[in-house]
């Protein structure tokens, strides 16, 4: 199975940064529409065929790029959609933390079963990198190895110390 791939259609198009995790593919990308082509980005996501899409952007961010109907649009592509809005440059707020366990379970189940999971935030770096790294660790990867693999594909992944602390999980948080 491939180690990593960056998949883009053409100049300026949405780029999906993917890597093998468990028996599936876990990827991150910017918010559909962030580059000015909401419909084209959705078509690219459809072609990539994720079974689950996790949106880390706020509703205001989605509306600003023409994605007011993002959840419905993703679901119309035959993908499950989960909205976990986190403010930019932040770790998950309490309401997202409460939703994390079942979302994590669903994502890990998809990956172990050979599925594709796509996570996005505004730029495809901090918030999405935080969630991708957390999922890699929850799937059994050592944190340092997971971070190195992730940053080999997306160097900007995980932008703040607070995001890194959350991504490393409860055992790491207890030691910091």
From TrEMBL:
Protein name from the UniProt record: Protein phosphatase
Organism expressing this protein natively: Parasedimentitalea marina
Pfam family for this entry, one: PTP-SAK
InterPro entries in the cross-refs: Prot-tyrosine_phosphatase-like, PTP, PTP-SAK, Tyr_Pase_AS, Tyr_Pase_dom
PANTHER family assigned: TYROSINE SPECIFIC PROTEIN PHOSPHATASE AND DUAL SPECIFICITY PROTEIN PHOSPHATASE (PTHR23339)
Domain Tyrosine specific protein phosphatases: 114-165
Keywords tagged on the record: Hydrolase
Molecular function terms from GO: phosphatase activity
UniProt keyword NAD, yes or no: no
């Amino acid at each position: 199975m491939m180690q990593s791939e960056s998949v883009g259609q053409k100049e300026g198009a949405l780029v999906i940064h993917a890597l093998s995790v468990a028996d599936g593919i876990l990827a991150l990308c910017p918010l559909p529409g962030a580059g000015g082509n909401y419909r084209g980005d959705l078509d690219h996501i459809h072609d990539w065929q994720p079974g689950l899409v996790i949106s880390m952007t706020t509703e205001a961010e989605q509306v600003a790029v023409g994605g007011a109907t993002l959840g419905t649009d993703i679901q119309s592509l035959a993908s499950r959609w989960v909205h976990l809005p986190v403010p930019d440059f932040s770790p998950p707020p309490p309401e997202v933390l409460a939703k994390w366990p079942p979302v994590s379970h669903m994502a890990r189940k998809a990956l172990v079963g050979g599925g594709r999971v796509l996570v996005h935030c505004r730029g495809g770096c901090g918030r999405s990198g935080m969630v991708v790294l957390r999922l890699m660790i929850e799937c059994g990867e050592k944190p340092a190895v997971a971070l190195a693999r992730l940053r080999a594909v997306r160097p900007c992944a995980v932008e703040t110390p607070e995001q890194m602390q959350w991504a490393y999980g409860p055992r790491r948080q207890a030691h910091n």
